[in-house]
## 1
Amino acid sequence: MSQTPPFDEMHNADGTIREPYLILEEWLKEQPPQALSLMSADAESLFRRLGITFAVYGSNEGTEKLIPFDIIPRIISAMEWRRLSKGIEQRVRALNAFLYDIYHRQEILKAGRVPEKLILNNSAFCPEMMGLDPTRGVYSHIIGVDIVRVGPDDFYVLEDNLRTPSGVSYMLENREAMLQLAPELFQRFKVAPVDSYPETLRRTMESVAPENTKGAPNLVVLTPGIYNSAYFEHSFLADQMGAELCEGQDLFVEDGMVYMRTTTGPERVHVIYRRIDDDFLDPLTFRPDSMLGVPGLFDAYRAGNVTLVNAPGTGIADDKAVYTYVPEIIEFYLGEKALLKNVPTYNCTNDEERAYVLDHLEELVVKEVHGSGGYGMLVGPASTKQMREEFRKKILARPDNYIVQPTLALSTCPTFVEKGIAPRHVDLRPYVLVGDDVRITPGGLTRVALKKGSLVVNSSQGGGTKDTWVLED
Amino acid sequence: MLGRTAQNLFWLSRYIERAENMSRMFEVGYRMSLTSRREGGASEHLISMMQAAEALESFELKHKQADVQSVANYMLFDEENPSSVKSCLLAARTNARSVRTALTTDMWEAINAAWLEFAAIRPRDVKGSKIQELLGWIKQVSYTYRGALLSTFLRDEGYAFSQIGNFVERADNTARILDMKYYVLLPRATVVGGDVDIQQWTMILRAASAHRSYRHVYHDRYKAWNIADYLILRQEMPRSLAFCVSWINRTLDMLEDIYGERTAGHAAADAVTELIDGNGVDRIFEYGLHDFLTEFINRNNRMTDALAESYNFY
C-alpha cells in the first residue's frame, strides 16, 4: 500500500489539473512571485493578534502556539461531498443507536455481534449511564469524523470522535482568514458557507433541552479554564453562540437542578456543552479529586434536569478497539452496508495477527487504544530501529493496549512551504451536529503534515491546517 | 452575568490602571534620582518611590543596592513582584482571557498585543534613553485599552464593573502617593518651603501627572495646602480622590438602574463619599493628613469587599 504514489488532490497522474482545482490553478499562476509569502505572513499576524492559539502539553505551562495556517485551500467537489456526507450521517446514526443499546438492553451483545468482554471490561464503558434516557435518545451530539483519502473514490474513516472533538473554531477562523486574504477567489468559486455552524450548534443544543424546560433554555459552555489547550475554542464557541462560558466553580447543584452564579444570584442552566472529560465532570460520581467539575452534576443529569452535550460514556463507541466493529454496528441497527470504509485493523491479542504485526512493524502504524493527539504512536515507515524495538516490547507486554493498521498513503494537497508550492499529506475532519436532526457543515478542518513525506497531521506534532472548500453545484 | 465575569472585568481594569501607575511612579523616582546632586540621594529617591508603591520590603529581600538598574528590573520586569508592570500586564491578560467573550475585539487586541510586545522585551536592553521610551509606551498601553473600552464597550453591567475597578485602583494609588509624602505637606512655621520640599512636592504632582495642570488651576507656586486640595478634593483633577469617588458613584447608580436595587456595596461607597464631601482641606489637616488618608484607603478597601460580596465575585 505504501508503495503506490499517494493520491494527489490537485493533479491527475498525467499532470493535468483535476476539475475542482482548475480555477485555483489559474489564480495561483496569476499571483506575482512574492504574493503568497506576503499572504502567509499576513495570515500569521492575523491569527496571533486575535489570539487564536493552543497550548502544547509538555512544553512550558502557559506557552501558547499558533497552528500554522496554509493559504492554499483544500477543495472538495459537490459530488464528492454528497457521498461523504451520506456516509458520515449513516455512521453517526448507527453509533448513537449503538450507544442507546449498550446503555439499555445490550441487544448487540446478546446477538454476539460485538464481544461482550470488549464492551463491559472497557474503561470507556460508563456503568453509571445504564438505563438513563438522554433527551431524544441522543448521546453524541457533536462529532468530528476523521477521514483520509487514498484515491479518487477511496475514503477511509480513521476515527469517529464522539467525545469532545476539537478544531471547529479553526474551520471557522480559517474561512474568515481566507475571506480577508483572498476575497477575489470567492468570487470565482461557489464555496458552501460554514459560518452557520455556531447557530446550528445553538439550535442543536436547544433541541435537546430537558423536557421540563420552561421558556428558552439557558445554554452554557463548560471549560476547564484558560490553561486548557483548546481554551480559545471554548471561548470562541460560547461567544459565537451567545452562551455563557463557565468554569466548574461557576456552576452548582441544588435540589437536583444546575445553577450558575450570576451577579444577581443563581440562574438555572438547562444544557451544558461540556469540554471537560467524563472523569472530571462530577467529583461525587467520577474522580473525587477533580477540581474542574461540578459536584452533584451527574445526579442532576440522571434526574433529567440538565442535558450534557455530549453525554458521558460516549467513548465506548469511538474506542479504537470497538472501531473495528463499526461496519457490524451499522448493519445491525440500520440494516445497511457501511458507505464509508474502515481501515483494516490488526488485533494484537490474536497470536497470528500479532506475529504478522511484529514482523512488519516498519510498514505499519501502531496506535495506543486510548491515545490521542498523535502521542504514543509509531509510524513504521518513518521510524528508527530503536523506536520499533521499543514498540515491539510494548506490544508484547500489553497486546490489548494497541491497534495496528497499514500505513495509508494519505492524499496530498498543494501546500505553500519554504521552497514554494509542494504536495503535502492531508486528512479531513468534518463536523456533525445531532439533535432533532443530523446536520453536517459542508467543509471541515483539513489538517496538513507540513514536513515533507510526513503522515502525522496532528498540530501537537507539527501539523498545520487549511481552509476546506466544499463547492456548490 | 456570571459573578466571576464581573470580578474578572473589575480586576482586568484594575491591573491595567496599576501598570500605568507603576510606570508613573517609577518615572518619578527615576527622574529625581537623575537630578539628585547629593551623595546617596539617587538611591533615596528610588527607595521612597518603592515605599509608596508598597514594594520596598520585598525589594530589599532580593537586592542590597537600590540603583536604577535593580529598581527598574524589580518594578518593571520582575514577575516575583506582584505589582511589577510585567505582573500587572500578565494578570490583566489572564483576566482578559477568562472573560474574552465579554470583551470587545478592540479591548482584547489592546491587551493581547501589549502583552506579546512586553513579553518580548529583554530587560537588559532597557537602559539609557530606552527607559523613558518604555515608560511612555506603558502609559500608551493603558490609554489604548481605555480608549477601546470607552469607544467600543456596551454600556451595561460589564462596563460598570470595569469602570469601578479602574477608579478604585486610581483612588488607592493617589492616596498612597500622598501618604508617602504626607509629612512634607504638613503646615509649618516657615512660609516658603525649602528646596527639598519643592522637590518633593514636584515629585508628588508629577506622579499624578498634575505638575503642569496645577498652575492652570491655582495660578500660584507649589504650596502644600493647594497640593493636598488638588489631589484630594478637586473634581476637575482626573486623578483626585474626589474625581475617582464621583466616577464610582455614578457607575454604582448605573448598576442600581440595571439590577433595580442598592446593595451593601452602595452603602460602603456612601461611607467613602462622606469622607470626601464632608471635609475641606483645613478639616483634613486638623484631622491629620496621614490618618485621613489611612481612613480613605481602608474605606476604599471595605467598599471593594462589599461590592465583591453583593455581586457574587468569588
## 2
Amino acid sequence: MDTVIQTNQLTKTFKKEEVIKPLDFVVEKGEICALIGKNGAGKSTIFKMLAGQLIPTAGDIHLFGISGNDLTDAKKRMGFMIETPAFFPDFTAVQNLEYFRIQRGVVEKQRVQEVLQTVELAKQKKKRFRDYSMGMKQRLGIALSLLSSPDCLVLDEPINGLDAEGIREMRRLLLKLNQEKQITILISSHILTELQLLATRFVFIKNGEIVEDLSKAALDEKSRKQIQIKVDDTAKAAQILERKYADIRYKALPDQTITIQNHIEEAGDINRLFIENGLVVMEFRLEALNLEEFFLGLVGEDIQ
Amino acid sequence: MNYIKSEHYRLLRKPSLYVTSGICLLFQVMAALLLYFFNQFETDFPYATSRFLYSNVVSSGTLLVIIAMLFNLMLTGKDMSLIKQAISFGISRTTIFWTKFMLTLSYFLLLCIASLFLIIGLGENLLSQEENSIANFLIALSNMIPLVFAGFSIIHMMRMLKVATMYIIIFLLVLFTYSGELFWMIFRSINGLNELYKYGPDILLRNNLNHFMDQAAYVDYRCWITGIVLAFIALLIGTRKFTKQNID
C-alpha cells in the first residue's frame, strides 16, 4: 500500500509546552482516517503542521514519499480545509475560487464550476462569501480543497455548523470521493457518530500523543461490550457456560436473556455450544459500544 | 508567477484600491483649486505659485509614509488571513512575502507617478510659474524616494509580522519625526557616531525641504544611504522572521 502521509517524531512546542509529543503517524492510500481527540488534544496542530501553517519544532513530514523543504509538488496533490475556511468576504464564490484557481495554476477554467457543482453551490455561485450561511461556507471550503483535483484531503472539522441534511450530504460526498476517485481522507470532527459512519481507521489522540490507532475492524472488535443471547432455558445455559469456561462472567435476566461480558471473541463457539446442548437460541446479539462511548472510555472525559 | 497573477486578480477587484487612489488624487486637485481660487479673489495672495504647491509635497514626507501605510493596509488588511491557504498549497513564505511587497509597491508607485503628473499639470497650468521650480521639485522628490521606499519596506515588514497598526504608526512617527534628534542626543558624545544624526530621516527630509524652498535642491546621497540601509534591514528582518513564522 502507498503511504500518503507519514510523520517521523513530529513535535510541536509552544512556549516550552510540548503540545505534540514526538509523533509517528502514517496514512495509507485509500484510507479515510479519523483523528479523534477532545479540544486541545492537538488535532488542529497536527493538521496545521501538515499544511505548513505551523513549523514543527522537531521531526519531519513525508507527503507522497517526499520530505524536507521542497513539499511544493507534494502539496499540489493535497487539499486542506483547516478550521474555518478563509475567503475574501466581498468576493463571490466564483471570484474566490477563480483567485485560488489562478494561484494554484489549474489550467481548466471550468474546474471552478465543476467543484461548485460537486458541493452543490452552483446556484449560489454569485452570492458574496459574507452572505453565505455557515454550511455554505464549509461547502465552499470543501470546493476549494477539491479545486486542484487532489489525491488526499485533510479536513479539520468539515461538518461544523452543518445541519442534519448538510451532514448527510457531506458524508455522501466524502464517501463518493473516496470510493469513486480513490481520494485518501484525513478528517477530524467532534461528531463521532459521523466519523463512525465514514472512517476506515481511527486514531485517538490525547495530550498530543496517539493513545490508540485502530482499523474499523479492530475498533469493532475492541468496542464489543457483551454478548446477548435469548434462549429457552437460561438456567441450563448458565450451567453449560460454567462447565465450559471457569472464569465466565454472565448475567441471567428474567426475560430469558443471558448476557456474557467476557470470552466475547468466542461468541461463535458459545452459540454452537448452546445448540449442541439442545438449547433453542432465539436471539443472538453482539452489543457494541459506539465510537463516542469507546472514546470516552479511552480518555475518560467529555469530548466537548 | 501564479501567485503574482492571483494577487493581481485580487487587487484589481478591490474597490479600496480605486477609492484610496481616487481620494489621494482628489485632495491634490482640491489643494490646487483652492490656491487658484484664492488667487482669483485676492490679488495679493502670495501662495498661488507652483513652488508653494510643490513645497506641500516636499514637506509631506511623513504624510506620504502614512499614506503608504494606509495603502498597504487597504490592499492587504483582511486578506492576511488567506495566506494560510496559499501556504497549504505549498507556496513558500518567501514567495508570499516578496510578491505582496512587489505588488503593493507597484500599485503605490503607480499612484505616486499619477500624482506627480497631476500635481505638475495643476501647478504649471493653474498657478503662477517660477523659474526652475519643476527641476527643483524633481530633485527634491528624488531625495524623498529612497526614504519613502524605506518607510514602505518597514510597513510591509511590520504588517507581515502581524505588528499592530498602532505600533506601526508610532514607530513611523518616531523614525520620520524624531530619529535624527534621538541620534543626536544618544550619540553626540561618542566619537565617530556624533555625526550619525545627519542620517536621520527627519533631518534629511527637513534639509531637503529647506533646500527646495531656497531653490537650491541637490541630490543628497545621504538620503539614498539611509533609505537603502533602512529598506535592506527591514526586508532582511521581514524575510527571515516571516519564513519562520507560524501562520495560524
